[in-house]
Amino acid sequence: MQLIRRNRILRQSPATRALVSETILHPADFIVPMFIIEGSKVQEEIASMPGYFRRSIDLTVAEVKELWNMGIRCVLLFIKCKDELKDNKGTEALNPNGLMQRSIKAIKDACPDMVVMTDVALDPFSSFGHDGIVENNEIVNDPTVEVLAKMSVSHAMAGADFVAPSDMMDGRVLAIRLALEEAGYTKTGIMSYSAKYASCFYGPFRDALDSAPGFGDKKTYQMDYANRIEAVKETLMDVEEGADIVMVKPAMAYLDIIREVADAVQVPVSAYHVSGEYAMIKAAAKMGWLDENKAIIESLTGIKRAGAKLIATYFAKDAVKLLNR
Ligand code: PBG
After folding, report:
1. What digits encode the pLDDT tens for the residues 81-110?
2. 137, 251, 279, 323: which sits with the fewest CB atoms below 10 Å from its CB?
3. Structural domains of the chain, ranges and CATH numbers in brackets
4. From the candidates 86, 89, 249, 282, which is the catalytic residue?
């Protein structure tokens, strides 16, 4: 055979492959989600997320220091609110001394350079488990946005570097931006969950925070997974409204959306490799059906190759260890 193009030349050895590799994961690509609970010295494994924990503030702080020393530069905070503090309006979300606000302060005190992002949505605080205020069995947009804007200012006041609205209400990015400006928080960023789909892959997360919706589902605010054009529309609008970073969520069933969004916007794109995606790899690995380490790196590399500069993932720590090998 005489060929003038032999594609295998570039694949022949690890060194050659390294030379032409297009996508390289870096510890600073990762955003580490953290689940925080009340108490001290408490660490609880999440049943549907083996190897992942809810921790009290003290142990969360210790973990953040460890992450920093590994080269990780960003954490995304979620809190588990006590049942007796939940109501329809998410009142506890605005408590200046609430668990979220105390967590932000403790982390920024101990590790001031770590970029701290906070989840902004009502579901952990809602007696209905919905991301917004409920009236007559509907999730109402505009009153919810008012609370989200106040919640964002409260997080900024506690020291958050970025607020991350994950609620999918209309107009919330603009409202948050204006509220931050008005309160003088001109250095607080917004990472918007711009294209967040109504997905079954959030199941384990809702166990982690005990935040499953009490009635109905989230399809009147989160997007229909059949749709593509809507993702671009949502993302472009969020950028216009002042989002600094936009997010696509979940990740692996939405790689086409990540690519399309990355091509459409001029801001960094993040993707959320969600709890169900974590659980699937963990379960298959436990059964001996997948090589966990290989599945982690291949998944995360695929998400980055699709166009995500940042990846929120429960595998961040594992990935950094594997990259350093
Ligand atoms: C809530 C929120 C969810 C996740 C992040 N923020 C759950 C939901 O929308 O029901 C999911 C994260 C994951 O599954 O890992 N606003």
Report:
1. 999 999 999 999 999 999 999 999 999 999
2. 137
3. 24-209+232-323 (3.20.20.70)
4. 249
